[in-house]
Design a protein that fits this description.
alpha/beta; TIM Barrel; seven-stranded parallel β-sheet; four-stranded antiparallel β-sheet; globular; binds 2-succinylbenzoate; binds magnesium ion; metal-binding; O-succinylbenzoate synthase activity; EC 4.2.1.113; magnesium; lyase
Length: 314
């Protein structure tokens, strides 16, 4: 039985900013355990561990597996990778719903791109837009354009905790609320996010609050949990969130952290299992210009760098 760890580096179509860090390439690890794969790709700015730390823990876990031991990694990205590579996946999963499109970039450029897109002919049911990045007037103008040109599309907004309570309130007071599906993480503190919801009527979703494992409670305006398995870690912790969402009548949106095509495939399968009725937040693959798998899902080992390969006694 074979155990292996690979490293990849895939160029972004254009450099992307992650919490003030500019990245030109997405770097991560692929783990193979007896022919089944997992991906370990901490995201700078969002993960608390570095790729080097994840690599060291992954190598130690593989060595333990080769001695026939069971492993329980600590780092979230490593937990996700090892859990995927050791999971008994359901065999008859339906295909996941297509992800909703993700818009990222300067408002003026996005307004221009909107004119050239074929969205008016076939509008998506949902569309996500990053906010709290450019001047508020510009972002509100873009939202106004999207809302009038795509009246049948619900907008998902994501502020990544970028506003104070007052800023978020000023922004939300001017939103076309009937067309806003929900706003992810307006403020860093959960109490501020709830206060903004109550003051303005906006529906909200939690994302970083969940991966930081902060306390939260249900509220009539809390509508969805955005679950990023690479950041949350173990699949059982993700499943616990899915259960809590179901018990509280919250939607579940499985979301990526800019994983490779292999990781996005795994996340798509989890989405079809855990959130069969909600389009996932997995529209990040088009930012990468290269792949690690073929169209049929085989890993192209020539596109990745082998760090370790071992036989297991078990
Ligand atoms: O959730 C999605 O639709 C796509 C993924 C996404 O937006 C994202 C990707 C990497 C880091 C943070 C985020 C985010 O939701 O803020
Ligand atoms: Mg988010």
């Amino acid at each position: 039985m074979q155990l292996a760890l690979y490293r990849y580096s895939l160029p972004f179509r254009q450099p992307l900013m992650f919490k003030g860090q500019r990245l030109t390439n997405r770097e991560g690890l692929l783990v193979s355990i007896h022919g089944q794969w997992g991906e370990i790709a901490p995201l700078p700015g969002f993960s608390t561990e570095t790729l080097e730390e994840a690599e060291a823990e992954s190598l130690a876990c593989l060595a333990a597996l080769s001695r026939g031991e069971t492993v329980s990694p600590i780092l979230p990205s490593v937990q996700f990778g090892f859990d995927c590579a050791q999971r008994s996946w359901p065999s008859n999963l339906p295909a996941s719903l297509p992800p909703y499109p993700l818009l990222q970039g300067a408002p003026a450029e996005l307004i221009e791109a909107l004119g050239e897109s074929d969205w008016q002919a076939s509008p998506p049911s949902r569309l996500k837009l990053k906010v709290a990045r450019y001047p508020m007037e510009q972002e509100l103008a873009l939202i106004e354009q999207l809302a009038t040109r795509l009246p049948a599309t619900k907008l998902i907004l994501d502020a990544n905790g970028g506003w104070t309570r007052e800023e978020a309130q000023r922004f939300c007071e001017r939103l076309p609320l009937a067309q806003i599906d929900y706003l992810e993480e307006p403020c860093t503190a959960f109490a501020d996010t709830i206060a903004v919801a109550e003051a303005t009527g906006v529906a909200i979703a939690l994302d970083e609050t969940l991966s930081r494992r902060e306390e939260w409670h249900c509220h009539p305006q809390l509508k969805a949990l955005v679950i990023k398995p690479t950041l949350i870690g173990s699949l059982s912790a993700c499943e616990a969130l899915v259960q809590r969402a179901r018990a509280s009548d919250l939607r579940v949106v499985i979301s990526s952290s800019f994983e490779s095509d292999l990781g996005l495939g795994l996340l798509g399968r989890l989405a079809s299992e855990w959130a069969p009725d909600d389009p996932p937040g997995l529209d990040t693959g088009h930012w990468l210009t290269e792949r690690v798998t073929t169209e049929t899902g085989e890993v192209m080992t020539e596109n990745v760098h082998c760090l370790s390969k071992m036989e297991s006694s078990a």
